[in-house]
Specification:
It is a single chain. The protein has 308 residues and is α/β, with parallel strands linked by helices. It has a single domain, classed as Phosphatidylinositol (PI) phosphodiesterase (TIM Barrel), CATH 3.20.20.190. It is built from eight helices and twelve strands. The strands form two sheets. Strands 1, 2, 3, 4, 5, 6, 7, 8, 9 and 12 form a ten-stranded mixed β-sheet that branches. The protein has a two-stranded antiparallel ribbon with strand order 10-11. Strand 2 and strand 3 form a beta hairpin. It starts with a helix and ends with a helix. It binds 2-acetamido-2-deoxy-beta-D-glucopyranose (3 copies). The site of one 2-acetamido-2-deoxy-beta-D-glucopyranose has 12 residues, from strand 5. The site of one 2-acetamido-2-deoxy-beta-D-glucopyranose (NAG) has 12 residues, from strand 5. InterPro entries: PI-PLC_domain (IPR051057), PLC-like_Pdiesterase_TIM-brl (IPR017946). GO terms for molecular function: phosphoric diester hydrolase activity. Keywords: Signal. This is PLC-like phosphodiesterase.
């Protein structure tokens, strides 16, 4: 009797205390206090194009990265891009085809990403995947996120599409634990929608890909309605390709020898400034790079965020 009433008092006191304690709030978001109050959509993130296609072998022509995904993340990459293909009955990240470059299963890749997320609870991460074979979003894609433990961390908007000005702040995403944003280029706006797998082009427009012109003339290459261009975020594809066989359609590869220049501050700011007028004079939300360990892309992104 006595002990029960003591415990009753203790727990009532604990509850009262809990009610008066301020809710824990993130004070540093993606490495900077200044970013906590910024909308997710009003931050520029460094992105890794074909993040899975890493190889330190200079003869691996199908590679677009030299360092693995954990290293990309530790350098500061906060958008991971990848292209998925079926390899037998399993979804894999492959470059063009799984015969050319097989980066392993999507589930294993995501499990690796989850390790980073667990170790870095104050980081918001974007995953932007392409689905060229139209793998089923609910029966093929979602199970990979579920098995890796990422589904519970994924941000679910209250309605779609989300306009640029309607995204939450980084701070509130971190506080709520919903700090992974997942976009798919195709198949995510069908009837079998998965609430956290978002249709990319309804919310992000992209500049053209396979660019071979170093002045990066900006144009809105891929976009979907119903939101206006200005109500989208946008991504600049900061990867300059080389046409190594300039005959006919040519053979376009990305070139690590040029990456230091392509990923240089000047080159990125030129590309971003060229696009800003198309994006309501805002900076790009995403700067997608090849060979992210080369050049100075992270300095450029800090500058675009007003941090350097
Ligand atoms: C995905 O799979 C589900 C369950 O089998 C099915 O109902 C749906 O129609 C499929 N979606 C597409 C786009 O094939
Ligand atoms: C967006 O970010 C810029 C810094 O890049 C900042 O000056 C501006 O106030 C922000 N706008 C909103 C609406 O958060
Ligand atoms: C050259 C380049 O980086 N192109 C990529 C731009 O981004 C889209 C996707 O998300 C890729 O499909 C392109 O390959």
């Amino acid at each position: 009797m006595f002990s029960r009433s003591v415990w009753g008092l203790v727990s009532a006191a604990t509850l009262a205390l809990a009610a008066t304690l301020p809710v824990k709030r993130a004070t540093v978001c993606n490495g900077h206090a200044e970013l906590c109050t910024r909308l997710y959509s009003n931050v520029t993130y460094a992105g890794a194009h074909d993040s899975f296609a890493f190889s330190s072998d200079p003869l691996a022509l199908a590679r677009d990265q030299e360092v693995d995904v954990p290293t990309q993340l530790s350098l500061g990459i906060r958008l991971l891009q990848g292209q998925a293909h079926m390899s037998g009955s399993e979804l894999h990240f492959c470059h063009t085809s799984c015969d050319l470059f097989d980066g392993g299963s999507v589930q294993d890749y995501l499990t690796n990403v989850k390790t980073f997320l667990d170790a870095n609870p104050n980081e918001v991460l974007t995953l932007l995947f392409t689905n060229p074979e139209g793998a089923n979003v609910s029966t093929v894609w979602k199970p990979a996120f579920d098995a890796a433990g990422i589904s519970d961390l994924a941000y679910v908007p209250s309605s779609l599409p989300v306009a640029q000005g309607d995204w939450p702040t980084l701070g509130s995403m971190i506080d709520s634990g919903k700090r992974v944003v997942v976009f798919l280029d195709a198949g995510a706006d069908g009837a079998d929608q998965v609430d956290f797998i978002l249709p990319e082009f309804q919310m992000i427009w992209e500049t053209p890909f396979s660019v071979t012109d170093p002045t990066f003339p900006c144009s809105v290459d891929r976009i979907n309605g119903p939101l206006s261009t200005e109500d989208h975020m946008y991504m600049i594809n900061q990867s300059l390709n080389k046409n190594i066989i300039p005959v006919g359609a040519g053979v376009i590869v990305s070139d690590p020898l040029d990456a230091a220049t392509t990923n240089g501050v000047d080159s990125i700011l030129v590309n971003a400034n060229g696009c800003a007028p198309l994006g309501a004079n805002r900076n790009p939300s995403f700067v997608l790079m090849d060979f992210v360990n080369l050049g100075d892309g992270f300095t450029a992104v800090d500058q675009l965020n007003g941090l350097a």
